[in-house]
Amino acid sequence: MGESANVLEIANDGGIRKLTLSRPDVLNSFNNALLDALNKAVRDAERDNSVRCVVITGAGRGFSAGQDLADVSDRYKSDAPIELGAHIRERYNPLISKIRSLEKPVIAAVNGVAAGAGCSLALACDMRIAAESASFIEAFINVGLVPDSGSTFMLPRLIGLSHAIEMAITGRKVKADEALRIGLVNSVVPDADLAAETQKLASRLASLPTKAIGLTKRAMNAAWNNELDTQLDYEAMLQTAAGQTKDHREGIAAFLEKREAKFNQG
Ligand code: T3D
Q: Using the 8-state DSSP alphabet, how is residue 248 labeled?
């Protein structure tokens, strides 16, 4: 890691692991230290059985403004060709892949602007709950780049090709109310309520059968590339796995006994 300051706050609360991007002076833009810490934190959340929901949010008035452009300014001091692919492959791509494949729910609590790779990070999460003052900018085009970190994959799937292309090639700011209307976020709440509403949602998700949530993510991820018959068969296979969990037995027992289910993962 390049920076020793605490650029990522990690907190645990009843099965919820909250990751707070913490470089507020630069709108939580990503330097290597933050990317490395975030990659590690998501890997750790995967391994830790006590974690049943992950929340990613930002400190201060931004969610994340994407790549820290000041941090990489040295690249532009000479006319030597600039090779961005290696940095993206090494630090951004594993993060996005891991969030998508993490078999636990991941919520982006978008507290402010999410721009560039910061927008991509929010898109990679399973749900987005936005504060009224949040906004989304596919800022890449404004610096002559193409959307990366999964934006070209997630954005059209979430909001359709027409809105996605428009956001990507104009780089315009999409405010929270529009984001809700076009399906970019799941809900919008007053700024003052974001933490409490996120906590409520995360607690609910953490109390559900985590294994079944993980298998559901797996199925949805696979569906994007599968034919219907392949997907039907895949669902049957995953359902076999879900059917063998204790949580499934508990869910059925609770239904029959007319009581609340207590899911314990597994
Ligand atoms: O390796 C690679 O380069 C490839 C990877 C690319 C992935 C990417 O993410 S490319 C896209 C990078 N991000 C951007 O281009 C966004 C740049 N930022 C902005 O356009 C604006 O800051 C925002 C629209 C996001 C917010 O505007 P506003 O007016 O609310 O805030 P501000 O005043 O512009 O920013 C506040 C401070 O944060 C300011 O610092 P200062 O003047 O108070 O000292 C600003 O410089 C700093 N800041 C904002 N974004 C970044 C940043 N510093 C470094 N890098 C940033 N991305």
A: H
Instruction: Spell out the alpha helix ranges (H) of 125-193.
Output: 151-159, 161-170, 176-181
| Nearest Cα residue to atom 31 of ligand 1 | 27
Question: Residue 1 — very low, low, confident or very high, per pLDDT cuts 50/70/90?
Answer: very low
Query: Could you state, in order of their start, the residue ranges of all structural domains in the chain?
Result: 3-206, 210-256
Domains 3-206 and 210-256 alike in fold: no
137 lines ligand 1 (CB under 6 A): yes
CATH class name, domain 3-206: alpha beta
pLDDT tens digit sequence for 96-149: 999 999 999 999 999 999 999 999 999 999 999 999 999 999 999 999 999 999
Query: Which residues on adjacent β-strands are paired with residue 105?
Result: none
Closest CA to 15 of 44, 48, 42: 48
Instruction: Compute the average pLDDT of residues 185-193.
Output: 98
The CATH class given to the 210-256 domain equals mainly alpha
CA 70 vs CA 20, 31, 76, 77, 173: distances in Å: 21, 9, 10, 12, 22
Binning the chain into helix, strand and coil, the percentages to the nearest 5 are: 50, 15, 30
Q: Is the CB of 65 under 6 A from ligand 1?
A: yes
Distance CA 145, CA 160 (A): 21
Does ligand 1 come within 6 angstroms of the Cβ of 63?
no
Report field, pTM of the whole predicted structure over 0.85: yes
Q: Calculate the average pLDDT of the chain.
A: 96
Label residues 164-194 b or e (16+ Cβ within 10 Å = b): beebbeebeebebebbeebebbbebbeeeeb
- Matching residue, tokens 């994959």: 153
Extract the tokens encoding 241.
């796995």
